[in-house]
Design goal:
38% helix; 4 helices; 6 strands; six-stranded mixed β-sheet; alpha+beta; 156 residues; Chitinase A, domain 3
Length: 156
């Protein structure tokens, strides 16, 4: 099985996110201490502690997930061909029904940038339905997506 591809920009964002999550865990310290010092009749009735414990557990799970993605991924780019949609390319398509043009940027298998703009193009993961449909197609190809016919106008 191929390793998931992550672009270097996304890899850096993952490391930054891990650092943010680690800082959030450190910042929970005073809340944990306060929750432990609240009076309650029994340990299992300490709802404030359970809330902060669950928040900490979710942060730790997010860190583990990001580290797992980083460990099991590759940044080795597949070969690019001129005029063919591939990872790290911008694509302009036209909706044949509305005649509107849209620009997309195809990121790797995993990205925190999905739904944001990269040089004026909407970022898609190549694992997204539209990203998977576009990848490997040539300029001029007509594709059916969600009831619309999209024509690839350019690939950069």
């Amino acid at each position: 099985m191929d390793k998931p591809l992550i672009l270097e920009a996304d890899r850096l964002m993952a490391y930054e996110r891990i650092a943010e999550l680690e800082q959030m865990i450190i910042d929970l310290g005073p809340e944990i201490e306060a929750a432990l010092n609240q009076s309650s009749e029994t340990y299992h009735d300490n709802a404030p502690f359970e809330v902060v414990r669950d928040r900490r557990s979710n942060l730790i799970a997010n860190i583990r997930e990001l580290r797992d993605i980083l460990v099991h991924s590759t940044k080795q780019m597949p070969p690019k061909r001129a005029g063919v949609v591939s990872v790290d390319t911008s694509i302009e398509v036209q909706n044949g029904t509305t005649m509107q043009r849209h620009r997309y940027y195809l990121a790797g298998d995993w990205t925190l940038r999905t739904g944001t703009l990269h040089q004026g193009a909407l970022v898609l993961s190549r694992k997204s339905p539209l990203g998977a449909l576009l990848e490997g197609k040539k300029v001029g190809a007509a594709l059916s997506f969600n009831g619309a016919i999209l024509t690839i106008l350019s690939v950069n």
